[in-house]
Write a sequence for this structure.
């Protein structure tokens, strides 16, 4: 017997001798089980994906130079620095989209920002889902607006990618979430 025949044999045997409840018990499936924080966050963000039609990936310079009275110092990128860079970039993008209304009237886009690379050996970079885009902004203009905003944030690297969000983007945003935490999502920028 080959593997396929053995699998079919056991499948028929299971179907004849076990009901659905018994199968769930054997496979440890429980419909009333509380989902992990990662799964709950993914489910919630998937329900919001239509409110955030733009996906953006920003690469960051991993080491930045700073001037002080003691000279020039190099600082390696960390989580706090990523948060500062993301905040600076979102302010600059808001200015690009809304002009002086961004500062004067508080007009802003909506953002979901995730730091990726903290738990892996990848370089730190940012993933954003962007919403609340006004109707006067055309899709063809978005890349230029992002480029102009990036020019005003020196810690951003040259590479970036603007794309249309689909439901898979929210899954991608949350791929590095922990089972019991959502630490790499910058909730204060949302």
């Amino acid at each position: 017997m080959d593997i396929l025949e053995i699998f079919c044999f056991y499948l028929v045997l299971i179907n004849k001798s076990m009901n659905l409840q018994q199968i769930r018990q054997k496979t440890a499936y429980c419909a009333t089980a509380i989902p992990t924080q990662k799964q709950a966050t993914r489910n919630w963000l998937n329900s919001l994906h239509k409110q955030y039609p733009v996906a953006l990936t920003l690469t960051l310079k991993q080491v930045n130079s700073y001037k002080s009275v003691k000279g020039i110092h190099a600082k390696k990128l960390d989580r706090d620095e990523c948060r500062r860079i993301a905040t600076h970039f979102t302010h600059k993008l808001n200015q690009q989209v809304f002009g002086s209304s961004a500062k004067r009237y508080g007009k802003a886009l909506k953002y979901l920002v995730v730091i990726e690379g903290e738990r892996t050996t990848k370089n730190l970079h940012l993933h954003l889902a962007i919403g609340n885009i006004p109707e006067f902004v055309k899709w063809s203009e978005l890349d230029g607006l992002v480029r102009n905003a990036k020019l005003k944030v020196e810690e951003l690297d040259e590479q970036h990618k603007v794309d249309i969000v689909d439901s898979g983007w929210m899954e991608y945003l949350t791929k590095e979430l922990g089972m019991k935490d959502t630490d790499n999502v910058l909730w204060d920028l949302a």
